[in-house]
Amino acid sequence: IHLKIMMTKKSISASRVSLILFLCQMITALEVPLDLSQPPTITQQSPKDYIVDPRENIVIQCEAKGKPPPSFSWTRNGTHFDIDKDARVTVKPNSGTLVINIMNGGKTEAYEGVYQCTARNERGAAISNNIVIRPSRSPLWTKEKVEPKHVREGDPLVLHCSPPVGLPPPIIFWMDNSFQRLPQNERVSQGLNGDLYFSNVKPEDTREDYICYARFNHTQTIQQKQPISVKVFSMDSLNETISANLSDTDFYGAKPLTERRPTLLTPVGSTSNKVELRGNVLLLECIAEGLPTPVIRWIKEGGELPINRTFFENFKKTLKIIEVSEADSGKYKCVARNPLGSTHHTITVTVKAAPYWITAPRNLVLSPGEDGTLICRANGNPKPNISWLTNGVPIAIAPEDPSRKVDGDTIIFSDVQERSSAVYQCNASNEYGYLLANAFVNVLAEPPRILTPANKLYQVIANNPALLDCAFFGSPVPEIEWFKGVKGSILRGDLYVFHDNGTLEIPVAQKDSTGTYTCVARNKLGKVQNEVHLEVKDPTMIIKQPEYKIIQRGGQVSFECTIKHDPTLIPTIMWLKDNGELPDDERFIIHKDSLAIMNVTDKDDGTYTCVANTTLDSVSASAVLTVVAATPTPAIIYDRPNPPFDLELTDQLERSIQLSWIPGYDNNSPITNFVIEYEDGMHEPGVWHYQAEVRGTQTTVQLKLSPYVNYSFRVIAVNEIGRSQPSEASEQYLTKAAKPDENPSGVQGIGSEPDNLVIIWEPLKGFQSNGPGLQYKVSWRQKDVGDEWTSVIVANVSKYIVSGTPTFVPYEIKVQALNDLGYAPEPAEVIGHSGEDLPMVAPGNVQVHIVNSTLAKVHWDPVPLKTVRGHLQGYRIYYWKVQSLSKRRRRHVEKKILTFSGNKTHGMLPGLEPYSSYKLNVRVVNGKGEGPASPDKLFKTPEGVPSAPSFLKITNPTLDSLTLEWGPPTHPNGVLIAYTLKFQPINSTHELGPLVEIRIPANETSLILSNLNYSTRYKFYFYAQTSVGAGSQITEEAVTIMDEAGILPPAVGAGKVRPVYPRIRNFTASAAETYANISWEYEGPDHVNFYVEYGVAGSKEDWKKEIVNGSRSFFVLKGLTPGTSYKVRVGAEGLSGFVSSEDVFETGPAMASRQVDIATQGWFIGLMCAVALLILILLIVCFIRRNKGGKYPVKEKEDAHADPEIQPMKEDDGTFGEYSDAEDHKPLKKGSRTPSDRTVKKEDSDDSLVDYGEGVNGQFNEDGSFIGQYSGKKEKEPAEGNESSEAPSPVNAMNSFV
Q1: What's an example Gene Ontology biological process for this entry (predicted)?
Q2: In sequence order, which residues have a C-beta less than 8 Å from that of residue 179 and are 6 or more positions away?
């Protein structure tokens, strides 16, 4: 077969994935050589949203290539931008990149706008994205008076940062006057908005220098908010102050700390919404206050948080999900909990998506008269709109091209000519963004050219893939052929893979793959060829590996490392210790084949690795060194044996040889046996195979050999501790060649097509060939027709295809091995068949016999075996329900299939629905597929008994009557003729009274039962009937109400009767993959605690029990095994033996939860509103009492006594109320204040600014912002006037804080 490479897709095995990725990159990057005419291609451009530094020149990139070289033009805000009229704007030579000079008095704001670049030549025009230029901004903080914060110990506190709005937004962090980061934890943390949140304050939170900083990275400046003072009053200090000013008879004190349940500081309310874009980072935040400090937990309702993309930050107050997709949409709930209770907030997340590519248009090179397509497919949420442009102009108004037809997201080209060359732009846009792609159509007529350099040399290691390049170009696309050797034999067969980009892959290169390879490229305009050379090298091997050593301190040790390599490669040997470099110590001595360590110390303990490198491969081997203390009397050490040595070969014969050896030291554990291994140096060098095993007392063995094998032997000793290292290899022994002893196994004959026979076999392994020139003689003949054998001899294959055979006829097949010395023994014959084809006829005389209302038997006549045209696998019945005769409406047709193996002539159809019309047909099946269907056969199932009524409700109880309402059966299974009601009273000891039966017409749906006894429980049995009989019954119980003398009159508006003793109804279980929702309805005494018991269905294991929290009527079973059937029931604590009936469910695909969110219940919302109103009233009363007259209650007493020692507080004193303590004038605790000269001692913190270059002596503006600079930025001259709102005052140390 003459193999040609065309630009089509081929299937390549998974073992070559890395190669495929490389080759795919080459294919997608296929380009037109620059010496040929081609439209422009944009190669580099600035980002769509380009924020520039206002202190630097603006550079807007636009680079393009093409032939002829393209010219460039720009638009600004949709109109032509005349570069020549603006002296500050220049264009780089041979480029479209704009440079706008701002450094010499220019203003960046004057050049804000939307820019777009166009690159144009005679073959078309390419356009860039819309590039939005905006200068970065770092405005100052708005001046405000910051009031001191006075808070009581245990109360919550929020310090607002409110940073100025910058572009891009600043990074926020809190520090003190010493430039030290304020510590944060579960109690104190910074929110996403920059505010500092305290769940509850402590006395140690008192300080005067809470400072919020905003760092603007783009302009490298930092702004500072005015410091905030916080004073926390502890209950102890308040009580001491109060008691010091009261008489002994007075009693007054501040209340002790009161613990409280959590409430959310942010976000507010119980629900909120958030929209995020696909691919972005989703950040959700919940910060709560409470005492003790609450902890936060996150869950996703109805699903799980993504495992590898979910992170928790800020002490679990922030949920971070990276690379969000539409699947991450849903409801996320944060729960804040402490010992007193919990609160929660639900955030509904909606993930939208800016457009993203499914198939971006690619450049198209066509020859005159050829056809082609440009495809532009994108997705997004909402779905993006696709529009086309040509040479930058909307295609609707562009000059017409008769070879072009636009069909939505595809442009179809037919019979193109040179004038069809152009650049097409595809724009995909929605409300969240847009994509713009350029793709040219270049019409060329070019003979082939090969781009790979001539006589390129490739070198690979044997048994590894070899890739020989043949990069090419031509229009039309050339066909590629590969040849090997001087004779120019065409490469074919399974030994090679031919890639679309021209590359030849040899999956497993052998030594005989070495040689010269010729690549030929041809199209209708010409032909060109190129030669490359391949050299296959022997692999590098470590034949003597380092061994595990135990050495005493002060001793010396040596590790060996002997390598074998290709003689044309130069190896280098490197030693590592614990995967790092060897210590720089003269005790380590490296020889050619070993490493020696003198005067060993404890530090030398570790793993030593020998690494042998060549330019093509690398191998390594490791050994562990254990250093032990010297012992005066060495203990007996039990270890693996030392390897045998002095191997000797004697008595060499053609098929046997004698091997003898000397055992090594057994290390105090007797040798139990020896294992002999061999290496075939001719066919599998470096691979050792098991040969034989002998007793530990034996040192000689007679070995059987195969012809044409280059044997080497080694021996391994085994004791109870383990196996020794292998011995040194023996000398080599090459046995003489001989005819093959055996033939291939696994011979089969099967057809892949109706007109062929594929003969396959298991090829012989290398040493089974017994000699050079291994080939196979493949013979076949049609069975029972007297034909002569047809034979062919093949090599290096394990399959042969015989074409032109009749369809599905038997063949006799045999495969015989041969080599240069002769044939193997005569092989056994096997029977195979040529290819199958679909059956020709359908089964006839199809009959249906109704067995009962749910079962039918189908008969048919078998088809003639000659018409099967393949191996008969059986018959297949397709059947489907046409309609239900009771419901008289058609339903969605769902075909069911039953297959009956072998030459069957009948089959049973189970599971039919009663009183329904069905159709069926029968088909014969062989290995190729199904034959034609028989004519559809219509049949009807008879009536059956109905299912139970869909419901039975008992309402409106009176003294002597009850009202019954019911629904018809879900599956009537026929024509209903009546309902039957049976009922009987139940006395207080649960004994049943006489049974009463009532027959009710089928068209009734309710009944009033009169003349009943008052205050009596009745049990009702209700079922429907068809002409076949009665269906399943439904039961209920109810009680008539008491008379007027009774204790409990009926509740106002009572509609449903409540049972006297407990009962569980409507027990359901709905399962997902790993959990199940269990729900039930309970009737009986209040305040009952439930439990759920479950286990694997059919298992004898004890029931597992789960307690239900509170008296809920639902429960979620978690941690279930997918695809498993479970049994489940519900019981009530304290009610002995009271459980529901069992239900069985099977875990599977996740189902929506049936649980009801308590936050959406009316009673719960009303209760919360009442609580909130009560709290509001209490706060108003407290506020009025506290602020009335601006005094505490004790103030009136003090005014009456007029104690001269008590002085009123100064306005800016910062003390609490109207009292001052001597301690108030003492310095605050360490860290709360800084020295007046604002110097910082280095030893206070490793993060202080004295460690950071120029930023130490920072100054401050009036508003408190820094005046300084980051290191590495030259100071710019201040802009003229006062128009700039920026403070060029960075401190380079701040980079280390965020």
Answers
A1: cell adhesion
A2: 1240, 1247, 1248, 1249, 1291, 1293
The residues, ordered by sequence, that sit 6+ positions from 1205 with a Cβ below 8 Å of its Cβ are none
**Residues 6 or more apart whose Cβ sits within 8 Å of residue 834:** 749, 751, 754, 755, 756, 757, 802, 805, 806, 807, 808, 809, 811
**Whether the predicted pLDDT of 541 surpasses 60:** yes
- How is residue 240 written in tokens? 């001491």
In a 10 Å sphere around its CB, with 0-12 CB exposed, 13-18 middle and 19+ buried, how is residue 640 labelled? Answer: buried
- φ, ψ of residue 544 to 5 degrees: the values are -130, 105
Residues, the chain, total?
1298
DSSP secondary structure, 704-767, as one string: E--SS-EEEEEEEEE-SS-BPPPPPP---EEPPP---SS--EEEEEE-SSTTEEEEEEEPPPGG
Q: Which residues pair with 549 in a beta bridge?
A: 625
- 317 neighbors 296 (Cβ within 8 angstroms): yes
DSSP H/E element including 1168: helix 1162-1187
| pLDDT tens digits for range 217-272 | 877 788 888 899 999 988 766 666 555 555 444 444 445 678 899 999 999 999 99
Can you tell me the distance from the alpha carbon of 24 to that of 334, in angstroms, rounded to the nearest whole number? Answer: 46
- For residue 203, the tally of other CB atoms under 10 A from its CB is 14
541 and 621 in contact (C-beta within 8 Å)?
Answer: no
* Distant-in-sequence contacts of 1051-1060, Cβ < 8 A, 24+ apart: 1054/957, 1055/955, 1055/956, 1056/953, 1056/954, 1056/955, 1057/954, 1057/955, 1057/957, 1057/962, 1058/1083, 1059/1017, 1059/1083, 1059/1084, 1060/1017
Distance of CA 1038 to the CA centre of its chain: 55
Q: Tokens 């022997």 sit at which residue?
A: 538
For 899-955, the pLDDT digits (tens) are 999 888 999 999 999 999 999 999 999 989 999 999 999 999 999 999 999 999 998
What is d(CA 868, CA 883) in angstroms, rounded to the nearest whole number? 34
Residue of higher predicted confidence among 494 and 1231: 494
Q: Omega of the bond prior to 571 within 30 degrees of 0, cis?
A: no
CB 231 within 8 A of CB 148: yes
Q: Are 317 and 397 in contact (CB under 8 A)?
A: no
Q: How far apart are CA 417 and CA 403, in angstroms?
A: 8
**Which residues, in sequence order, are bridge partners of residue 658?**
650, 702
**Tokens linked to 1160:** 């959406």
Can you spell out the DSSP letters for 799-864? EEEEESPPTT-EEEEEEEEEETTEEPSPPPPEEEE-------S--EEEEEEEEETTEEEEEEEPPP
Cα-based distances in Å from 1078 to 386, 445, 1112, 1119: 49, 73, 11, 14
For the whole model, what pTM was predicted?
A: 0.48
Provide the pLDDT for residue 10.
32
DSSP structural state of residue 167: B
Residue 1002, SS3 per DSSP:
coil
Phi, psi of 202 (to 5 degrees): -125, 160
